[in-house]
Structure formats: C-alpha cells, structure tokens
Amino acid sequence: MNDTELSMRPGTSVLPSIQAMRGVAALAVLVHHLGQYAGLRFSAGWLLPGSGLLWSGVDIFFVLSGFLMAWSSFGKSNAERSSVAFLTGRAGRIYPPYWAALALTVMIAVALPQAMPKETVCPALCQISLMPYDGSPLLGPAWTLSYEVIFYLIFAALLMFPGKTRLFGLGVWTMIVLVSGLFFPPSNRASIIHLALAPLPLEFLMGCWIAVALQKGQRFTSLFAAMFALFLMLMGAAYFNSVSPGLRGSAAEWARVALVGLPAVGLVFTLASMDLTKAIQPPHIFQWLGDRSYSLYLIHWPIVVGLSWIVHESLSGAAVPAMTFVICGFGASLAISAVMYRYVESPSHLFAKAISRRIYNLAERS
Prior knowledge:
Radius of gyration: 20 Å
Helix content: over 70%
Shape: globular
Mean pLDDT: 88
Number of domains: 1
Structural class: mainly alpha
Number of strands: 0
Order of helices and strands: HHHHHHHHHHHHH
C-alpha cells in the first residue's frame, strides 16, 4: 500500500505503470467496500456489479510491496546502514498516515457507535503499533498493514547481509515460508509467527523475486499478457469467493495465493517489464491516484462506514439512498485522501526520506 521511490534503477526515474497500478488497486478496494456496504445497509449490492471481486486489490498491493522493497533496497552497498535506514524510512512512511486515518475512525466510532461493525476490537496498543493481537483492528484495512510491518522487519534483517548473500537469504526465507505453510500451519492467526510464516507472505516474497529477475535483465513485455493476468486474477477471485467458505485452516490462504496472488505476480512482472522498456505510458490520472493510493487505501474505510450509516438513517426508500451513498462515498474518499496526502502523507514521506538518507550517510560523514 506504501512504497519507496519507484525507479528504473534504484534512485532514478519513475516506473509509471507500477505507480498507476497502485492507484488502480486502491480504487478497487474502495469500490469493493462501497459495494459491500451498499449491500449491507441498503440491500443494493447490485449497484456495483463485480465489486465483490475487487478485494484482490490487496493482493496486488502485497506483490507490489515486495517488489518495491527489493527493487529499491537490494542495490544499497552498506548492509548495516541500509537496514537501519530502511526501517526508519518505512516507519515514517507507514505510521503517520495510518495514525491520521485511525484518529478519524476513532472519532466516527465515538460519534456514531451504531455505524461500526460489531466485532471484538483489539487493545489500543495493538491499534497504534499494528502488532497482531486477538480481535479486529478498528480501522478495517489495518490487518494488511500488520502483514507489511512483519515483512519489513524480516526484510530489514535480510538487508544486514551484503551483496549476493541477500539473495541466498531471500531463497532461505522463501523456502521456510513454503515449508511452514505446507507442513506446520500456524494455529493462532493473531500471532507474529502466523504473519511471518503463513501463506500470504509469499505474495511479498514473489514480489521480491520479480525485482531480482528484472535486475538480472529478465523482461516480458506483452500488453495482452498483462490483460490476461488481470482476467485470471479476477476469475480466481470469483472462484475463491465460491470455495473459501468451505476451506479450513491455512487452506484458504493457500487458495488465495494460488488463485489471486500468482496472476498478480504475472501482472506486476509484465507491467514493470514494459516500464523498463518504455513500452507503455498509462494515463496521468492513474499516476495521480498512485501517488495518493496509500492515503486512499486508509481513509476510505471510515468514510464508507460512517457515510453508509448516515445516508441510511437520513434518507428513505431503497435505490435513492444507496446511489447517494455510492456517489458521495466515492467522491468524499477521493477528496479527503487528496487532502490527507497533501498535509500528512507527503510531509511525513519527505521527513522520513531525509532521516533515512541521513542515517545512511552517517558513516561517511564520521
């Protein structure tokens, strides 16, 4: 959901299709939740046909996160400084926008407690830190950030190793997750062990391997292949929706990785290849969305939840309030995410980047 600087080589120009894909993925998750709450509040899920498949935007984010982390970090030479700078930059990027969205969610929960999902909420420390705990996060999408935080911690440890040793470490990490997921499925979903070794982290790891392949010169530039990967991903999401209620334990996560994660890997690899060969230039609006994708991903959820209850209680009938909710929810999410990006995410990004660079250069100055 978040990224370091998108680059053709670490530290240089932007990968426009990858940036655009982030925006499309965030938009997909927004439409998914609009369709979900149109159905829950108004029995009008039909207003957004296909929105029940768009949770797959999360899987795109997972693959992108792994890709971007490896693409931007594996070229750094100093292992120890690279690791510390990486964690500092990640913390500065993830937490300030998350805390802003969490604060809005808390205000809505206090003002409109009836609007919030009736679930057991994990303690305040869990909410603030994104560490796993029994119970649901108050901010719906935060469960995905918990996976990201654990991934970043392990990835930072990987960066402690120099050069080619990192690739060996990445291979060992991938094998551990594969073996653990197949033979020793974690029983407690609210544990760090689960977030580190469950099947879903394979999507991050596959993203890392995309970066490795591209840095070694591998390319696959086919717009048809990218569209076919997207089609397979949506069909996989549809099939997953039909079979997941009957799956137990880690089987559901394995099915999700196979049906949705693998096509997402193909999509990311193909579009990144096309960026590197300058074979495609996506519309500017999608790159604009990509810049604001993290803010949109976070802030849309309290807006959708709160607005759905307000519209439901304020308007009568069926189709009119549902349509009002969808239009207002879509517009408000885009508008408020732009404000959040301008005043929270962008400043925190610049600050984190400056601190990270200072840490990385500290040894050279001494």
